[in-house]
Amino acid sequence: MTVEIEIIAAGRLPRLEDRPLEKRIGLIILATDHTTEVDFQRMVAGDRLGVYVSRIHYANPVTPENLLRMQPSLTEGAALILPEEALDAIVYSCTSASVVIGDRNIEAAIHAAKPGVPVVTPTAAAVTGLKALGARRISVLTPYTIETSRPMADYFSDLGFEIDRFTCLGLTDDREMARIAPDEILAFARQALAPQSDALFISCTAVRAAEVAARIEAIGKPVVTSNLATAWACLRLCGDDRARPELGQLMTKPYREG
Predict the structure, then answer these.
(1) 195 Rama class: left (phi>0) / alpha (psi -120 to 50) / beta
(2) pLDDT of residue 227
(3) Are 21 and 48 spatial neighbours (Cβ–Cβ below 8 Å)?
(4) 192: CB partners within 8 A, 6+ apart
(5) What pLDDT sits at residue 258?
(6) Which element (helix H / strand E) includes 166?
(7) Phi, psi of 52 (to 5 degrees)
(8) Which residues of 200-219 are buried (b: 16+ CB within 10 A; e: fewer)?
């Protein structure tokens, strides 16, 4: 026999806060991404700052042509993050695609869904971070092929950086890039850094370089990685100015755009 349970309506509606969390960051990441979400939960998310993720279609291999094919998905990806609600920053988390699509084109596509929100790309954040560290001469390490690395070399060179050494690992699958062991990242980073460089940039949001950035800096030079740079930019845009040297020298610096 079914017993009818009395359900009582409360005498009033609950008081609602403006936001569940004070600040909120949107992430647009590749469907195949293993790393960005984990890095942002570790470095960015907290009691006052939420990270909200949208995944967009991506098909390997990592080539300029395949990277460019993501551009039409950016607006829809942004629209799916807390629809009709404001964000404090939104990240498109693909470094090589940011080069081939272009920072401004990415910003325009995201603004079509989220007008006015600060847009962060790994490339623009890396440039800002390298400048914050006073780096003019740089070495670069990527997991890509030479074909996919070439536009990135041109990107940094066109922005006035002198590239002393550019090393690529020759991988074509971003899922394999995510599986590079941290100790291997450390070993390749040591080989990739030219002695005369002011800093090392490690590209690719799939590579787990942010978690070993401070260890790499034991070689005596600052290190900027894709996810470290975007995490730093987002924290500073949300008013978090804490120095966190355990994450790397970049996390001790203020953020100045331009």
Answers:
(1) alpha
(2) 98
(3) yes
(4) 139, 140, 141, 165, 167, 200, 202
(5) 62
(6) strand 162-168
(7) -125, 130
(8) bbbbbbbbbbbbbbbebbee
- The pLDDT score that the predictor gives to residue 153 is 98
Q: Report the alpha-carbon distance of residue 213 to residue 165 in Å, rounded.
A: 18
Q: pLDDT digit string (tens) for 23-41?
A: 999 999 999 999 999 999 9
How far from each other are the two terminal CA atoms of the chain, in whole angstroms?
Answer: 72
For residue 178, what is the DSSP state?
T
Length of the chain: 258
- Three-state DSSP state, 173: coil
The DSSP 8-state label assigned to residue 198 in this structure reads S
Record the pTM: 0.94
What are phi and psi for residue 110, nearest 5 degrees? -70, -40
Low-confidence ranges of the chain (pLDDT < 70): 258
Give every strand in the sheet of 23-30, ordered side by side.
49-56, 23-30, 89-92, 119-120
Please choose, from the candidates 154, 137, 61, 55, the residue with its C-alpha nearest in 3D space to the C-alpha of residue 102. 154
pLDDT digits (tens, 9 = 90+) for 90-135: 999 999 999 999 999 999 999 999 999 999 999 999 999 999 999 9
111-142 burial, b for 16+ CB within 10 Å, e for fewer? eebbeebbbbbbbbbbbbbbbbbebeebbbbb
Three-class SS state of 91: strand
Residue 5 is given by DSSP the state P
CB burial of residue 75 (10 Å; 0-12, 13-18, 19+): middle
pLDDT of residue 219: 86
Helix (H, G, I), strand (E, B) or coil at 127: helix
